[in-house]
Amino acid sequence: MAPTSIPSGPARPGAALTGEGAAPMSGAEAAVLARTLAALADPVRIQLVSIVAARGAVCSCDLETPLAKSQPTISHHTTILARAGILVGEKRGRWTWWRVAPDAMRDLRRALGGDYGDPPDDASSTC
Predict the structure, then answer these.
(1) Is residue 86 part of a domain?
(2) What domain range is 32 assigned to?
């Protein structure tokens, strides 16, 4: 299964989810985002991505201590993240070196947006 990145969508970050000056997210875009968020919906996987992102590239063998998990458990989590297109692995001998997929975090930030201020006024609202 080839990794699928979240479509770039609107130029303004977060516009797809916040409705700020852009068309709503398509069903396909929402499905890709849901798969990405599902892969991240585990504290171990969030911590794993954080470690890899901070270090640039990390050998699977170097994830056991900071995650306090066995190698089979780490393999399970990295596989889920790789299938979601979040991590990219490179086999080097016995071990796999992991790095964050080049566009994964940028696309996720773009889809979620960074500005969660007050919602825009809606003159047509009846509330």
Answers:
(1) yes
(2) 25-112
